[in-house]
């Protein structure tokens, strides 16, 4: 009986914590369909409204070579959380360029978490709890132990790669 109860509790816990990836909802704030919660890169890059800007911007972006050389020496096993809105112009403009930088750095995809928010900059199931997201996109860099090293909010101060380099330099 104890084993059956344990298995039941495990299954219930898995169902509660599991959430639909690349979930589409209708956002009341913007009166359009959007993605919400955990997303994959493929999910956001194939979402029609996001894709129309993603592909040309990704192809056209050329990160600063000198900054990238310096960044490559600093990038290890950090994790990055990208909080974006598929409805948001700044997200549509900056996320493709950020992925171009990550690809050039050979940043591991498993170390990137993508969370899409609604027009109120909220997601479901508490996945943004404690992050204080006020604007999107927000790119948060964590060390391998999960400590936040820094973030780029909405748009870069210098360039995405320049701001990322500043975050990494603070770490070392």
From TrEMBL:
CDD domains: TRX_family. It comes from Pedobacter riviphilus. Residues 1-18 form the signal peptide. It comes from the Bacteria. Keywords: Signal. Coiled coil: none annotated. This is Thioredoxin family protein. The keyword Signal applies. Pfam families: Thioredoxin_9. InterPro entries: Thioredoxin-like_sf. SUPFAM superfamilies: Thioredoxin-like (SSF52833). The lineage of its organism: Bacteria, Pseudomonadati, Bacteroidota, Sphingobacteriia, Sphingobacteriales.
């Amino acid at each position: 009986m104890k084993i059956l109860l344990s298995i039941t509790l495990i299954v219930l816990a898995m169902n509660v914590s599991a959430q639909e990836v690349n979930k589409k909802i209708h956002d009341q704030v913007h009166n359009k369909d959007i993605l919400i919660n955990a997303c994959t890169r493929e999910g956001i890059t194939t979402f029609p409204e996001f894709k129309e800007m993603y592909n040309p911007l990704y192809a056209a972006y050329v990160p600063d070579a000198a900054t990238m050389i310096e960044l490559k020496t600093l990038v290890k096993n950090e994790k990055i959380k990208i909080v974006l809105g598929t409805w948001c112009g700044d997200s549509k403009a900056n996320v493709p360029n950020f992925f171009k930088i990550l690809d050039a750095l050979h940043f591991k995809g498993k170390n990137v978490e993508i969370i899409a928010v609604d027009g109120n900059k909220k997601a479901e199931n508490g996945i943004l709890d404690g992050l204080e997201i006020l604007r999107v996109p927000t790119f948060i860099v964590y060390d391998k132990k999960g400590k936040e090293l820094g973030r780029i909010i909405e748009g870069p101060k210098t360039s995405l790669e320049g701001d990322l380099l500043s975050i990494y330099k603070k770490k070392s």
